[in-house]
Amino acid sequence: MNIDLPTLWFGVVALTFTIYFFLEGFDFGVGLLQPFLARRETERRAMIGTVGPFWAANEVWIILAAGVIFAAFPVWYGALMTALYPLFALILLALIGRGVAFEYRAEIDHRRWRLFWDVTSFICNALPAFLWGVIMTNMVRGLPIGVGGRFQGTPLDAFDLFSLLGGLATLSLFVLHGATFLLLRLETGSELYARARAAALSFGAAATVLVLLFVYVGFVREELFKSFGYAEWIFPALAALNLGLIWLALTVKRDALAFVATGLTIVASTATIFLSLLPNVLPSTLGETYTLTVQNSASEPYTLRLLTWVGVIFLPLIIGYQAWNYYVFRQRVTESGAKPSGSVLPDTEA
Amino acid sequence: MNEIFGFSALDLSRFQFATTSIFHYFFVPFTVGFAFLIAVLQTLAYRSGSARMENLTRFFGHLFFINFAVGVVTGIVQEFQFGMNWQGFSNFVGNIFGVPLALEVLMAFFLESTFLGIWWFGKGRIPAWASLACIWIVSIGTMISAFWIIIANAWMQHPVGFEIKDGRAVMTDFSAIVFNPKGLEWSAHILTGSLTVGAFFVLAVSAYHLRRRHEVESFRTSFKVALVVALVGSLGVTLSGHEQGQSAVRDQPMKYAAFSALWDTPTGNQMPESLLALPSNGLRENRLEVSVPYLGSFLAFNNFNQKAQGLNELQREYAAKYGPGDYIPWVWPVYWSFRVMVGLGGVMLLVSLYYVWRWRRGKLDDPGRLYPLLLAMPLAPHLANFSGFIATEMGRQPWIVQGLLRTQDAVSNLSPLTVLLSLVAFWIVYLTLISLDVFLLTRTARAGIHEPDVETPSVPSPEYLPEGQLTGGRS
């Protein structure tokens, strides 16, 4: 197979999204599970501590994904973001909220202060976890874009039952991924760990139902993912198999396997989305001629060659030091370690 | 519906971009300058091996962390907005402009966020030399990040290394873009300016505690370090600013004329500089003007007998070259913000010199009569940055890319209502953020250095099990 530069960079876009959903998937999940799993303040702290040293670096992958689309496929960048403007605006506001919640929650030891940030954190983890599914669904299905990638629809075009189902599928997958991540990060004997296991099982079931429903609607009703030809079922089938594997791994208490399997589901789902787009990047529902393809929306070869050099040098480096980050903080988080600190403001309602 | 409350999507998008950029720009220079100071303090701590210095570094590190969080999250918005609100711009310049942005992420954002996390949470888990390396990596990361974004912006002000192909700007020479003289001058200006932001903050916090005789030895050290950086920064920002004014005369004469409110090209053989003016775009002249002869010529050309073109003459030239239209930026905000920036730069230099003088006379521990001013000084570099931003970005209008793309042709095809809603949401969130940031910074700064066991609760950092005591078999 002859891979040209635009196709290579389309692959890089797909790869960065995949890494992003894999990594940020579990910290969205941990944030979403926190109100349901943690009962005591020390438990809440322990849960935040499981992602504390990682979430900021995980988030950079979406900034990279956006940067790569901008540099390598400027027309796609403008068309997608303008068409789904309200969704991206909400995601940005949510990413602001959760980042600040992570950092500011512990600044003041006061019940209402923490409650405020816990609520903010929950909403701001839920919004992107849901909206990324809506965005991906719209991207695969196409949008009413006209000449020059100019959007011809209304902000409400992004929402229908299918895209909402896509949103629920990513939301439940991320929660499941967060739960299996917790099983690797929490002290195995704790009550919190036991609750995380129970959550993983129930969310595993929910995610299985939602993802399979999404696959059914996508393949059969909407007739998407046709570009795979004979192999069109491979990736969704892998995702489905994996969901079964997760359930199995959880039942026989193989935590690491369960985490790898939830991760693989995310990887396979993201790969399905991007492979099914090829050779397009954004189909137009107004007609084939307006569809943005890998070739017609890519930057010039000079820019792409430059990006290739930069990517070859820096991507391995980044992956290397991020791996070191996970290695430094490889120990499980203990609840007893997360002792409440000295009160600064009176804890009136504690 | 093309307008809402009389505002078009273009007006609202411009306002949103200005809002989000200026808010973001309160945090970025602070991060750049402050990270450098903390790295210097930790180097001193490492070399002396003193626990006192270590605590001092942690104290300022805590303040840094509070601010860094907001800087990062507001930065994400900046990148996405180019696609969301400025589709015409993205299509036109993506080939070129996207590259420094992608480089910024690859070379800087990952470094900053990964190594800051390891530096902060990894205390006691990594060796001291690795911790020191982490904070220097963070500091260098912030500077690399600033560099690439300045290179991107410099290209918009002074496009180089490109050709126009099928109505889009296409890169032909990356090294010309990296070594854009505009970008290099600007980097010097913005990096030294950022140093002053960090330095005056550390100076104020140190003076506050020196005045209260709290941890005198520690805060004396941070005061000295910050003072040296403040002096170097203020001098650097003044000199590089002068340099930049001179290059603006060559590359963006319209902007330079707006800085000086110079409507008519001087008739004599030299150019005066106006000290005080009330410019009016409607009248195309100043309602009131006090100017000093020869000064303008000196500032712009380093000699006393040259002159630059005035706004009116440039307008005629541009209309002939680019077609009918108004090419004069809105002069009064440009003129006045330029003056506020320069004035504040002068104040920063004088205050630094005053405290260096006190230091030489052995009066370092006593902030003296200028103490209230010193406490207010952290605002000065912020306001100077704000004014500089307004002057340079409004001075470029109506161009988004000088001479190539007008702002009105760059905007996305959005309904004004959509943009208004996002604008309101950003305002609410950003105002909340800035209040929280100032509140937490003040509170933590005033609390001062605590013994480690009564340390103010900071970022979530639960303790981890010591090595060799892992519970759970598979981890």
Automatic annotation (TrEMBL), chain B:
It is found in: Cell membrane. Keywords: Cell membrane, Electron transport, Heme, Iron, Membrane, Metal-binding, Plasmid, Transmembrane, Transmembrane helix, Transport. GO terms for molecular function: electron transfer activity; heme binding; metal ion binding; oxidoreductase activity, acting on diphenols and related substances as donors, oxygen as acceptor. GO terms for biological process: aerobic electron transport chain. The chain crosses the membrane at residues 22-44, 56-77, 97-121, 128-151, 188-210, 222-241, 336-357, 369-391, 419-441. One of its GO terms (cellular component) is plasma membrane. Its main location: membrane. InterPro entries: Cyt-d_ubiquinol_oxidase_su_1 (IPR002585). Signal peptide: none annotated. It is a multi-pass membrane protein. Belongs to the cytochrome ubiquinol oxidase subunit 1 family. This is Cytochrome bd ubiquinol oxidase, subunit I. The lineage of its organism: Bacteria, Thermotogati, Deinococcota, Deinococci, Deinococcales. The gene is cydA.
